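Slide 14.
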Amino acid sequence: MVLDSYAWIEYFLGSDTGRTVREHLNTEEVVTPSITLAEIARKYLREEVEQEDVLKRLNFISTSSTVMEINAELSLAATKAYLELSEKAKVEQLRRPSLTDGIILASGRALGAKIVTGDELFKGLAEVIYIG
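Slide 15: predicted structure.
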């Protein structure tokens, strides 16, 4: 199971959605793409969360899941996934995807794993458990 930044942030908020994430975290093998750590750090630092607290959360993610690094094969697959998401976004009139979105989708596909997210861009994809 792949968790994106949306899923982790809900987990840290302790929301109802976060409790669903916690259930997955407690019962399944979880993978977090490395770029997700940077996304989470950016969000919390923008919100002026203390750097020490941000680091604690990032370390928790790193010890509670396997952090998946980006390599050449994943980079190529992520670009293809990004292009696919771009087409989906046009058709469904959604926000433009980022390359990070492509990395998340490609990570799940490379592992043959479900992706847990509340990002509307992923809604309806076979690989996705939508929690939004």
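Speaker note: Residues 2-130 form a domain with the Rossmann fold fold (CATH 3.40.50.1010).
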